[in-house]
Records
---
Amino acid sequence: MFSTSHRKAGLLLALCACLSAGAQGTDQTSAPQAPAPAQLEQVARVPGVDTLLRGLNAGFTLSGVHNSSIGWYNVVTPAVSYTFSPHYSADASVSFYPYRLVENENSTGQPGGPNAEGLVVDLGGVGDTFIGLHASFNPRILRNTTTASFSFPTGDQAAGLGAGKPTFDFSDHMVHYLRQTGFLVDLGAGDSSGLFNRLVTNNYTSVGPLAHFQAGVVVWLFGRNYIQSIAYEQLPIGKQTVYTTVGPPGAPNSTVVSGSGVSEDNGFTTSLGIPLTAHFTVSSYYNRSLRQHSDTVSIGLTYVLRGTPIKHRLSMIDRALREAEGAKQ
């Protein structure tokens, strides 16, 4: 019995020494880490700008978008992020619209599609500027990211691209992983729809208090490819004002709508990310708005200044060591 105990103790010490050596050989500031679900939401429509690398990162996405109300248009979204530590990061982004169709305020025609009499071409539109502050905790069992988001009125309010005033939103993003599959829940509240579900490019912006939540699943595939599918609900609280690109049917030239519940929205969003190289990623999404009765499809190409190699995969032991070391800081 005595010798057996000594053998067990010796094996335990040897294992601890191996784990300690592996942890000391890990460079957290430059080596890629295992995929984290919070990275999918941190920078709107720029999926490659995440918190895998410490310090400053930047990139942009060029997307083609089709909306069932206004047809095809283009979106260019540059973004910049800064990762202070494994727990804290911040980012900023703004969208530009080189080509877009908007309501013709001088027409009495009924909007109904890209060739409708009530739509005209708008070149060079600008959206609101978004700022996000993120704090991530509990990386082992439940990944939890709390985000404070703010927008600044750089967008064209009349074209449905801006709220016309500074807005805010607070949300909590929780994900539990079972191997490569994560189950996620988001809860939040704010005073503008522009800060919720920012992956999707909407043709309206609402101003007024609202609560929101979404739930779904994200699956990481080989080579850091991922697919995510969520169901969402946007629930207005009190009176709302909605600034739209296209007025509702039967109300031509009406791009401003006010009332209770006018900004309610719910539906489904499925997105896909395919890294081509360390710096280029193809991303796509399909959004079905049940409340607004609209469909939006997008495909885009993202360039990231500081890319992450897509062929390197960490073992389960290396991943656990990274997360444990990050939790100590």
---
Amino acid sequence: MKTECNTRQFEFQGVGRRGVVGKFDGGNITSDSGGLLLREVDERLGISKRFAECFTDYRDEKSIEHEVEALVRQRIYGIALGYEDLNDHDDLRSDPLLAVLCGKEDPTGSKRRNPRDRGKALAGKSTLNRMELTEEEADEKNRYKKIKCDGEKIDDLLVDLFLDSTEKVPHRIIVDVDATDDLIHGNQEGRFFHGYYRNYCYLPLYIFCEDHLLCARLRPSNIDASEGTVEELERIVFRIRERWPEVEIVVRGDSGFCREKIMAWCEGNGVEYILGLARNSRLEEIIHEDLVDAQIMYATRGKASRIYREFFYQTRKSWSRLRRVIGKAEYLSKGTNPRFVVTSLDEMDAQRLYEKMYCARGDMENRIKEQQLYMFADRTSTGKIRSNQIRLYFSSLAYVLVNALRRFGLKNTRLAKAQCHTIRLKLFKIGAQIRVTVRKIWVSFAEGYPYKDVFLRAFANVTKT
């Protein structure tokens, strides 16, 4: 039969003698009830509250219905639950579950001042975008955009959240640095064409310690990938050593960060490093015999062969001193594949240093992927680089929140190592009916939800004292 529908009901293919009719009349039903776990984590760690303290609100107190903390929560939870655009919030503002997550005591919005807002407990896009578009020099004299963001406080907050999450002071931490492309499709401020990525893009700098995000800095792409790294490391290392003065810090990065300025700064500040080193004819000549031996081994065994050699090396012009270099003479089915790293570490043998320490940096790319793709860090479509940086901050805090749930909420579950989008799909996207009474807000989860065991364990983990 031909499907017919109108604005009130939808007639689908029948089942046996029964017709199948759909209507948007289910009442207060949400598809994101698993977000309640995020709220439990947030309340425990104070992430949204501390983030909100990084904003200055110049709005007239008498006219405010949505406090900054509620706005911050709405934006962070929206991103974490998969809603990347501010436009989405013109519909989400009617979701009573999201209102509960944001701490709204009137989750149905029945008591809003303006009659046209009743039934919509949360802010719409025009209110939310004031946090992103308020200029740096704004004050109470501005007419509309009066919620000013303090980027320096947010930068410090990211480091502090990492420090606060660690119960025992570690002997050593490894700080990973990397840059990636953030494609842009308009005439945004800072728009440049990047030859390597062959497109117009930003070139954000990310700094992680394991899965903890320490820095997300939006930059134009007409710069070297390492630009600004020393300044960010200086700030981060100082803050870490304020809390952990004895901790050993190792900076790790690919060859894009093998720069004299970075290595010299590390050497002058008691920070170790292990960095990729771009190959050249001089380096390849040093391990030439090893490459020949690796080729012979490959011909004999029929599988990839590697020989490691360490030596001291100095460039003709750019380096100020001799430094320890590890060379990997590798032969694969496609031919020779020489690789090099430079390091200040001296306690490991060459193979272990390369394979166990340097190669582990590849996991950072998974963290960047989570940030860029699943927390929508690439949604940098406003006209100004400052407002796009603020969007990156919101994405960053959403990642920090979901990662916190993964780290201790999903411990010892089958989602303990799941990526953010998998957690969202399997743990947050739970259909539920919401009923608001005088004393309770009842959330009736879908009975057919297949990950009840994970949800129960996560709830136990995040609510235990």
---
Amino acid sequence: MSNLDEHLKTLKEKIIIRGTLEPLTPLHIGWQRSFDPASSDAPVIKDPRGNPFIPGSSFKGIVRSFVEGFLDGAVEDSKKDLKPCFITDDNPCIKKKDLEQYDQYEDAKERKMAHILKQACPVCRLFGSGDMAARLEIADVFPYSLEDSPTDKKTKIEKMKELMSARSGIKIDRKTGKTKGGALFQYEILGGGELFGEFTFTNFQLYQPGLLFTLFDLSTEGFLRYGHSKSRGLGVLDFSVESIKIIQTGKAEVNTIKGIGVVEKYRDYGFYAGADDKMTIDGDMGYENQFLYSTFTIDNKETIGTVIRQFKEKAQSLLG
């Protein structure tokens, strides 16, 4: 059995997707309660300097939950290996009792990891679980980009604060249908502007960014909403991809994006698609070879659109 640590620790490829997130309806992602008497009951979450932001963990939890439901409905019952396990339920894809059978072997750790990689459902392969690392990282979302100058960052923060306001809500007694006494509360909302996000995949398969891009479409259409008070119409975000950067170790094929599934020595680990886990792009991909690694830097809108479309086709072909 080959060394699984090589797969888990060796960087073969990375893709960094950067873009803007524009609230199409008011957005509220925040603390449950404020201790500031001058603040609303539920303010938008802010960093220690008072600047509004959205934790990457908030996005990741929302997206994971939606992917579970999306795949469960989209995948045919006959393709059980593609069905999500709903990790919080009583039937996770990786069962502790199944791993115990390998304790008798000297290479128990290797055998257990091989079992995990083969048996993990698509959602756990993407977002991780208690048994395996995630392939997707979502950075905290701020009202400015990393490339902005300090002056531009300050200007964008002040503009974002101007778009924040308080909204009132009430609680209803479900038995009587009337307003509960003292049930008036206020929550803070973000009414527009631009936020800047970054999504990073490491040692990924091509269907995985394809799932993310599909979710971007569903989000813009309002099928996937973020934050609190979604039943009140809040939480619709429009995602616009501004750049895609791909890093591959060694010399990459020009205009060819490969997933980890094409690596022959990893085939026994249960990766989907196998040799089909690659695609050729027609467009300017900004290819550079840096001796130890190669990069594709895609910031042309037309090429970005082509890349996104082909990623989504890979996700669709996997689901059938």
---
Amino acid sequence: MARPPRIEFPGAFYHVLERGNQRQEIFLDDKDRGAFLERVQRYKKDTGFILYAYVLMPNHVHLLIETANVPLSKIMQLINLTYTQYFNRKYNEVGHVFQGRYKALLCDRDEYLLSLVRYIHLNPVRAGLVNKPSQYKWSSHSEYLGGGKGIVDTEMVLRFFSDRSISALRKYEEFIHEAIGEGKNESFYKATIGQILGDDQFLGEVEKRLNWRDKPLRRPSFEEILQFVQEVTGVSEEEIVSSGRREEVVFARGILVGVWREFGYRLMDLQPKLRRDVSVLSRLSKISDCPEGRVIKNQVCRKLNA
């Protein structure tokens, strides 16, 4: 299946992760790190995005970005293209520096801003590069403590702790140090669907921003899909999940598989529900691609979306 397009709109808040090609190092010395940050700063000024946090690790980068009017895809294209040109020219290399498509999760800022800032700033500690985040030169933690390079927008985060600057800094540092020793938080990589980290209310807000009436972000359950396939095809739920081979039953089963895929689910997750191999499910899904199948599949999807 084709990769879903980026979800982009003004004011979107992203946790961006990009790795070196084949996980190789993308910074070979401090001049490389400085060159990358120079580009971040340049395009931050040109495009108006907000940068809440960053860390440059040997073979990957974390950025916490809120966009303005220029979409994230354009911002990352500018940064990556010009840094790749710099790197290849300096080291007499050719080809990609970064590994394919960067990962960007659209996040609920109100829910995840503080925890993501802390997670990013503790990356070097979790990797064993330093014992304390303040010992690592190439993250935005030092800017929060009042010493940095001036490319990070620290005000919003610090205001969460206190309106008084000295108190905010002290409480911020305590907040960071509370999590030293914790392992990698996998929840920051487990999006609700594909590219989004947030609850149902946040998904609804994103839908309104995008006006995605025909393709909502919230995905239906298996039971909901099964129910509406029964309504449209007239084949009972029991028959659809049975081993029956009547033509109309196989057709309805194929519609169910096609709708399942339409909403971005994996066939392997359908295996225990229909008790069939992925190869069989793949063949069934082709039923929904024939002219009659597409009509019925679209009817089911419209009902589910409504």
